[in-house]
C-alpha cells in the first residue's frame, strides 16, 4: 500500500511539475511577444498522441516496450497533465467555428470519459468481488438460461408432486418474467436491489399459503432469485466497463485527426510551414 501511495504521489508531482514548466515557458514567450499557441498546441498534440499509443501497446503484449502497468501509469498522468496544457492553449472564450468546436468537444469528451473510466476501474471491480463468485461477462446469458430452466423445473415438479397450483400461479404472475427477460436500460445505468427485495418479500408472504412440498421448492426459488439478481448486477457493471472503454478508444482517432487538421490550418493561416 505504501508503494502505491508513494508511486501516485511521485507521478502526480511529475505531472504538476511538467504543467508548471509548460506554463513558465508560455509566460516567457508572452513576455518576448512571441506566439504561444504553437508551443502549447504541439505539446498538447504530442500528449494526446502518446496517450493513444497505449492502446497500440496493449495489442503487442510480447513486445519489449516496457510493462503494461508502466504504460498505464504514464497514460494516466500524461492525460491528466494534458488538461493543464489544454487550459494554457485555448483562449478563455466559447469555441469559434465548427473546427474549434469539434476539437474542444472531442478533447473534453475524451478527457472526461478517461476520468470516469479511471474511477470506474478503481471502484467497480471491488463491488463485483463482493457479489458471489467471479462471472465471465460472455457466459452470463447462458447462466441466466440455466437459472430459468432450474426454476421452471422446480416449480413444475412441486406442482405435480403436491397437487396444488398456488406456487405455480405465483411463479407465473411474479417470477416468470423475472427469469425470462433481461433487465432494462434503467437498471443497467443505475443497478439496485429493489426488485430483488420486492420479489423475496412477496415470496415470503406467499409461503403461508403453500403446502409443505411447495415450501421446500420456495426455498430453492429464494436462492435462484438471489442468484439471478447477482448475475444482472454483474452484467450491468461489466457492461459499464466495456462500454466506457469502447467509447473512450473510439474518441481517440477523430480527436487526433481533428487536432492534426487544426495544427495544419493554424500554420497555414499564420504563414508558417509544417
Structural class: mainly alpha
Rg (CA only): 28 Å
Order of helices and strands: HHHHHHHHH
The structural domain count equals: 2
Mean pLDDT: 89
What does this 3D model show about the protein?
The chain is mostly helical. The protein has two domains: 149 residues, no CATH class; 102 residues, no CATH class. Helix content is 81%, strand content 0%. It is built from nine helices and no strands. Helix 2 runs antiparallel to helix 3, helix 4 packs antiparallel against helix 9 and helix 8 runs antiparallel to helix 9. The longest helix is centred in the C-terminal third of the chain and has 59 residues. The radius of gyration is 28 Å and the shape is elongated.
Amino acid at each position: 500500500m505504501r508503494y502505491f501511495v508513494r508511486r501516485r504521489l511521485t507521478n502526480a508531482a511529475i505531472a504538476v511539475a511538467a504543467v508548471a514548466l509548460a506554463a513558465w515557458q508560455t509566460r516567457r514567450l508572452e513576455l518576448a511577444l512571441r506566439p504561444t499557441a504553437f508551443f502549447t498546441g504541439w505539446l498538447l498534440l504530442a500528449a494526446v498522441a502518446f496517450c493513444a499509443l497505449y492502446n497500440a501497446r496493449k495489442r503487442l503484449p510480447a513486445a519489449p516496450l516496457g510493462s503494461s502497468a508502466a504504460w498505464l501509469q504514464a497514460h494516466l498522468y500524461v492525460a491528466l497533465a494534458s488538461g493543464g496544457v489544454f487550459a494554457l492553449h485555448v483562449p478563455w472564450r466559447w469555441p469559434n467555428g465548427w473546427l474549434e468546436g469539434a476539437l474542444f468537444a472531442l478533447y473534453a469528451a475524451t478527457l472526461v470519459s478517461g476520468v470516469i473510466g479511471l474511477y470506474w476501474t478503481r471502484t467497480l471491480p471491488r463491488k463485483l468481488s463482493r457479489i458471489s463468485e467471479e462471472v465471465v461477462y460472455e457466459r452470463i446469458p447462458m447462466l441466466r438460461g440455466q437459472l430459468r430452466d432450474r426454476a421452471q423445473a422446480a416449480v413444475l415438479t412441486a406442482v405435480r408432486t403436491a397437487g396444488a397450483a398456488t406456487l405455480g400461479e405465483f411463479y407465473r404472475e411474479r417470477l416468470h418474467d423475472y427469469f425470462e427477460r433481461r433487465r432494462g436500460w434503467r437498471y443497467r445505468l443505475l443497478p439496485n436491489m429493489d426488485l430483488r427485495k420486492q420479489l423475496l418479500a412477496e415470496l415470503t408472504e406467499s409461503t403461508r399459503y403453500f403446502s409443505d412440498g411447495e415450501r421446500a421448492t420456495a426455498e430453492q426459488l429464494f436462492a435462484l432469485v438471489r442468484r439471478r439478481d447477482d448475475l444482472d448486477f454483474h452484467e450491468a457493471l461489466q457492461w459499464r466497463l466495456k462500454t466506457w472503454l469502447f467509447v473512450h478508444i473510439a474518441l481517440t482517432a477523430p480527436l487526433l485527426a481533428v487536432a492534426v487538421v487544426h495544427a495544419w490550418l493554424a500554420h497555414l493561416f499564420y504563414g508558417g510551414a509544417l
